[in-house]
Amino acid sequence: MTMTLEELAKTVAKRAKADPEDSWTARLIAKGPEKCAEKFGEEAIEAIIEAAKGNRAGLTAEAADVLFHFLVMLEARKVPLSDVMDELAKRQKRSGLAEKAARKGL
Ligand SMILES: N=c1c2ncn([C@@H]3O[C@H](COP(=O)(O)OP(=O)(O)OP(=O)(O)O)[C@@H](O)[C@H]3O)c2ncn1[C@@H]1O[C@H](COP(=O)(O)O)[C@@H](O)[C@H]1O
After folding, report:
1. Ligand 1, atom 41, residue with closest C-alpha
2. Which InterPro entries does the annotation name (predicted)?
3. Is the pTM of the predicted complex or chain greater than 0.95?
């Protein structure tokens, strides 16, 4: 069983409109975009800790939390996942090092 980020983003958009009594997504969204961003940051730190420890199972679980809360943060600010993917697609023709060098030249 696998799922795509696009599928999860659709679930997040749907659950954002649910009753906060019944949905973690709706509860977070109801607290506002700043809280959603803060929660994403907390989950990212938990993932960093597991990565630093070399705990693969822990990192897998925390990475899932990061991706879910990343999508909630985007939903809270109404940034579509497709815009993020389009931004990545634009970068596909250029290596990250070349992009960094070009930015330094600005
Ligand atoms: N993928 C997730 C998902 N990942 C994590 N979480 C929730 O995120 C919350 C994280 O809370 P906490 O930080 O308090 O928990 P913690 O990270 O264990 O932290 P500690 O308290 O242990 O330090 C938990 O309640 C998890 O259940 C998620 N909640 C929902 N989803 C997806 O969203 C769908 C809709 O969920 P609802 O919005 O709840 O209906 C679900 O069917 C899933 O597909």
Report:
1. 11
2. HisE, PRib-ATP_PPHydrolase-like
3. no
